[in-house]
């Protein structure tokens, strides 16, 4: 039997220049695997806790040396000689070692880095591609044919905490039609991205990029961004509403104050019902396919109302609202409060818990969108995860910046291996 020989952790940098955790796992047969974890800046309050040192003398308090020590000194000795294919029991052990509801003792960054490495090691031990191994994990080792690729949704304008304070809404997406093959969808997104750069340049607008590779133009309103995207789409040969659509991630908790939502498009703030009406008008004008976090994470009644109002035409996606958390997901399913879930492994903190949430969402009839974070590494685990769980969509940012492109290119390789081109 192949077993875990050793696990070591290092402090590396993510795409925003902040420290994060990288784990190397050595197997008894000489193989080794590496995994690293991302970090979000738009963090929901129901996410598992990422452990930071808070030492102002190092990395402005953002260091992760304590998380590194937790891997090297607490976790690693407990996992030596274990079988890496026992993902569920190892993740259970990690959760028990931490012993807190939100992984605040060892840190979700420490736990997830090890969990990802174990999953990658399990695939190596049985000589399977990672996506096929994940497919077996989520399907309880029953044979499963992977016959589809997820549809990418491209964040080509960055606002909110991902931008430069230029726009209230956090992400402005173009979404190719789901009947496009993956490599075609990737080309569509990239071509629109390049056309948008031309549009911005011609208007002397800022076209530097934000955390997720999308442009951060200096605009007056959020709808200005949608208009520029429409102009870019019309410069291509792709038919809007047939081959390509628009989507928004509002991250609405960030511009809610008290009971009201305030955005620069409106002179006065809006209550929940007024804001839902405003979003319904946006949908009427731009035929949105996706609305992510359109309301704040605690506005449960508002979520139910907007899902009832728009849910048959638009995917209402819970990110901060659900936080890849089974308890919040179960409540959302029972109350019909959204129609899709954004899955981020570091919101919950382990592979097994992530797979359990995906299974619950599938059973509840929700669409699955597997997502990166704004602070990423070149680790493409989430690309394999998306294929392995048959996700409907992936959200990896713009088709630019190395840490985003690593995920998109990994999907190109998987599509080729599966002969789905």
UniProtKB/TrEMBL annotation:
InterPro entries: Enolase, Enolase-like_C_sf, Enolase-like_N, Enolase_C, Enolase_CS, Enolase_N
Domain (Enolase N-terminal) ranges: 4-134
Its job: Catalyzes the reversible conversion of 2-phosphoglycerate (2-PG) into phosphoenolpyruvate (PEP). It is essential for the degradation of carbohydrates via glycolysis.
NCBIfam families registered for this protein in UniProt: eno
Coiled-coil boundaries: none
HAMAP family: Enolase
Keywords: Cytoplasm, Glycolysis, Lyase, Magnesium, Metal-binding, Secreted
Pathway in which the depicted protein is active: Carbohydrate degradation; glycolysis; pyruvate from D-glyceraldehyde 3-phosphate: step 4/5
Protein name: Enolase
Predominant location: cytoplasm
Compartment(s) where it occurs, according to its Swiss-Prot or TrEMBL record: Cytoplasm; Secreted; Cell surface
GO MF entry, a single one: magnesium ion binding
Pfam families recorded: Enolase_C, Enolase_N
Cofactor: Mg(2+)
Family statement drawn from the similarity comment of this UniProt entry: Belongs to the enolase family.
Enolase C-terminal TIM barrel domain sequence ranges: 146-420
Enzyme class per UniProt: lyase
Cofactor binding remark: Mg(2+) is required for catalysis and for stabilizing the dimer.
Residue sites binding (2R)-2-phosphoglycerate per the record: 170, 344, 373-374, 395
Residues where Mg(2+) binds: 249, 292, 319
Organism annotation: Candidatus Gottesmanbacteria bacterium GW2011_GWB1_43_11
């Amino acid at each position: 039997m192949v077993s875990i020989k050793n696990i070591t952790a290092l402090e590396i940098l993510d795409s925003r220049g902040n420290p994060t955790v990288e784990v190397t796992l050595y197997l008894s047969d000489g193989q080794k695997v590496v995994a690293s974890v991302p970090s979000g800046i738009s963090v929901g309050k129901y996410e598992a806790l990422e452990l930071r040192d808070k030492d102002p003398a190092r990395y402005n308090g953002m260091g992760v040396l304590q998380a590194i020590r937790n891997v090297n000194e607490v976790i690693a000795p407990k996992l030596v000689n274990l079988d890496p294919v026992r993902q569920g029991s190892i993740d259970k052990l990690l959760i028990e070692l931490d012993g807190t509801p939100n992984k605040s003792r060892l840190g979700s960054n420490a736990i997830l880095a090890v969990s990802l490495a174990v999953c990658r090691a399990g695939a190596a031990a049985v000589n399977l591609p990672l996506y096929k191994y994940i497919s077996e994990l989520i399907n309880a080792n029953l044979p499963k044919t992977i016959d589809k690729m997820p549809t990418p949704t491209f964040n080509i304008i960055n606002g909110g905490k991902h931008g430069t304070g230029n726009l209230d809404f956090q992400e402005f997406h173009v979404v190719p039609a789901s009947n496009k093959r993956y490599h075609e969808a990737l080309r569509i997104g990239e071509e629109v991205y390049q056309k948008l750069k031309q549009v911005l340049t011609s208007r002397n607008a800022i076209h530097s990029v934000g955390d997720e590779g999308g442009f951060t133009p200096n605009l007056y309103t959020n709808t200005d961004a949608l208009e520029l995207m429409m102009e870019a789409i019309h410069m291509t040969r792709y038919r809007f509403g047939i081959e390509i659509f628009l989507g928004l991630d509002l991250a609405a908790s960030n511009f809610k104050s008290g009971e009201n939502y305030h955005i620069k498009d409106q002179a006065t703030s809006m209550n929940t019902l007024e804001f839902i009406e405003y979003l319904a008008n946006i949908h009427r004008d731009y035929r949105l396919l996706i609305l992510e976090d359109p309301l704040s994470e605690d506005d449960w009644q508002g979520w139910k109302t907007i899902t009832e109002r728009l849910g048959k035409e638009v995917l209402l996606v819970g990110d901060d609202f659900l936080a890849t958390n089974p308890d919040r997901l179960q409540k959302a399913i029972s109350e019909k409060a959204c129609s899709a879930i954004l899955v981020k492994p570091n919101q919950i903190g382990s592979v097994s818990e992530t797979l359990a949430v995906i299974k619950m969402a599938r059973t509840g009839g929700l669409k699955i969108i597997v997502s990166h974070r704004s602070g990423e590494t070149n680790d493409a685990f989430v690309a394999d995860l998306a294929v392995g769980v048959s996700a409907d969509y992936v959200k990896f940012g713009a088709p630019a910046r190395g840490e985003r492109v690593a995920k998109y290119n990994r999907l190109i390789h998987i599509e080729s291996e599966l002969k789905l081109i």
